[in-house]
């Protein structure tokens, strides 16, 4: 029993940095919704003709470059969850600077 407790304790110590740091890397759905409200007044299926599409106003080249074509040809044709999945990839490669004005406005820089 003591050996099992020591193994469990060692596992927890090893995993603690992962458990503590992971949430700070991923944005919550609420954060993405706030960003979409700023970018497109929360309209996930919007095509305004400005060259950016969907709730997070993603360009076609950025969409394709981050795997979005797997979901839909253009962002506004994808579901909200699919747009967020691609946005997480964009954020991982470009940071919040991919949405410079709105990320600053909602305080996620």
List the helices and strands and how they pair.
Layout: H1 2-25, H2 29-40, H3 60-65, H4 80-94, H5 100-106
CATH structural fold name:
Lysozyme
Largest sheet: none
Low-confidence stretches: 12-24
Radius of gyration: 18 Å
Provide mean pLDDT, rounded: 85
- Helix residue percentage: 55-70%
Q: Find the count of extended strands (DSSP E, 2+ residues).
A: 0
User: What's the CATH class label?
Assistant: Mainly Alpha
Give the percentage of residues in beta strands.
under 5%
**Number of structurally distinct domains:** 1
Structural class based on helices, strands and sheet pairing: mainly alpha
N to C succession of SSEs: HHHHH
What does the overall shape look like?
Answer: globular
Distance between the termini: 48 Å
InterPro entries: Lysozyme-like_dom_sf, RPF
GO molecular function, one term: hydrolase activity
Pfam families: Transglycosylas
Family: Belongs to the transglycosylase family. Rpf subfamily.
């Amino acid at each position: 029993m003591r050996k099992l407790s020591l193994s469990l304790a060692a596992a927890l110590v090893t995993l603690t940095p992962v458990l503590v740091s992971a949430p700070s890397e991923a944005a919550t759905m609420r954060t993405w919704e706030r960003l979409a409200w700023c970018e497109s007044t929360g309209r996930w299926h919007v095509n305004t003709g400005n060259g950016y599409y969907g709730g997070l106003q993603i360009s076609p080249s950025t969409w394709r470059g981050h795997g979005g074509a797997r979901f839909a040809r253009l962002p506004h044709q994808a579901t909200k969850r699919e747009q967020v999945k691609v946005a997480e990839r964009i954020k991982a490669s470009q940071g919040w600077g991919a949405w410079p004005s709105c990320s600053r406005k909602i305080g996620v820089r």
